[in-house]
Amino acid sequence: MADFFSTVSESTVRNRSMVCVGLDPAMAKIPERFRSAEHPFFEFNRMIIDATRDLVCCYKPQAAFYAGEGLDKDLAMTIDYIHGSAPGIPVILDVKRGDIGSTAEQYAREAFERYGADAVTVNPYMGFDALKPFLDHADKGVIILCRTSNPHSGDLQNLVCDGRPLYQHVAELARDRWNYNHNAALVVGATYPEELALLRKMCPAMPFLVPGVGAQGGDVEAVVRNGAIGRGGLMINSSRGIIYAADPRAAAEKLRSTIETCLE
Amino acid sequence: MADFFSTVSESTVRNRSMVCVGLDPAMAKIPERFRSAEHPFFEFNRMIIDATRDLVCCYKPQAAFYAGEGLDKDLAMTIDYIHGSAPGIPVILDVKRGDIGSTAEQYAREAFERYGADAVTVNPYMGFDALKPFLDHADKGVIILCRTSNPHSGDLQNLVCDGRPLYQHVAELARDRWNYNHNAALVVGATYPEELALLRKMCPAMPFLVPGVGAQGGDVEAVVRNGAIGRGGLMINSSRGIIYAADPRAAAEKLRSTIETCLE
Q1: What residues does B61 pair with on adjacent strands?
Q2: pLDDT tens digits, residue range A140-199?
Q3: Which of A120, A121, A161, A244 to mutate to test binding with chain B, by most B CBs within 10 Å of its CB?
Q4: ipTM value of the model?
Q5: Which residue of A has its CA nearest to B168?
Q6: Which of A91, A223, B54, B204 is at 20 to 30 A from B227, Cα to Cα?
């Protein structure tokens, strides 16, 4: 596979889609027929992947859901299955790591070697040396938390430092100092569309991973209008809204077509 | 076991120790005789635990080292072994988690139920709702990254917001808004002893986990002088300096006695 961002650009064009499906299964929520399987989350994900692989630009499993159940094997099988059955569709492992250099190296190994992910989410609080072991993998995407979608994200991210909120400093660091391999991107929540517009102005060429549409209430139209670069530049994540829909394919199609409409 | 901080206070008194041993094994560094074992990191850790359990106030396995090798089972066995063989010595699982509420709940389950840890490290960048699922466990310790020991920790942590560096805002949030169950603590690196003194003034009753002595070059004397609350209040972590010492027991004893000397 080529580098992560080229691959996403291509899948975005090929599938006419900026949809990222979040593979975040919970035992209490997946249909009962999967629960007794030896690999319940993998079997569930396989159903979702088979239903959506021509409608998405990427997949994003959230590591917590597998770790909480001790189903790491299901996570590995899911990533392998995507690579095997949906060639050219990359996988973002959502782990939000951040630790000192020697430890971050271990986490980079976990994400890229053990699981074979194509990109990873990371937390910027500890600074550059916590990100470098990820950024050094030029072919992998490193998606840095910037302005997150959750209700209390402003506790730190909106503190005003030298005249600008902290999250803008993160964007600037990502753009000017951390993007030496052209493999950095930002996490920007759909729940803050005006800040998304501002960040797009600051970082006109940087891909954004956008969680927070669907269950969290973000407005797809505002996200696309404020964040798209031409017909790309965004990976708009929906998890619960697609994977637990009565018809996951129809739900993914609907999100894709809502996005398309906003582009016209 | 009682709540985490009572347990640490008691082990600090009982073992006359503020030493936290970091159980961070790396395959290339552990003695060769362990490498071929079915559970190499567990066997190595057992040797370290047997040699040090009367000299420490707590243990801190760094999850990355196990995850990078796919040796999660060794991590679980290590925590079980500490609880069985060193009753009253709590375990901090160093994972530096931070994610939105529903995801953080999964991580809390992982740390406290799957692994049975007594405390966990967390990242504050996403704000309160990312920490709440941990803080809600009143009997567990929640140790929040504040001023970390790594070289680029100032990239964000030293940005001046409303007249004070970001890390001081984190300390204030931890003290005034996040400590509703009296189970919050801070990570404060030994490599910044003046900032440690400042944080101790801001948070006179809050325990600090202090990484960065030993391999990272922090000064034990300055840490104790600037951070101790009486004969406690600190968990001073050493990993490589103890676990890879020719005589790990002697190395732990030496650190304990250096700390004791500073208290006199």
Answers
A1: B23
A2: 999 999 999 999 999 999 999 999 999 999 999 999 999 999 999 999 999 999 999 999
A3: A161
A4: 0.95
A5: A156
A6: B54
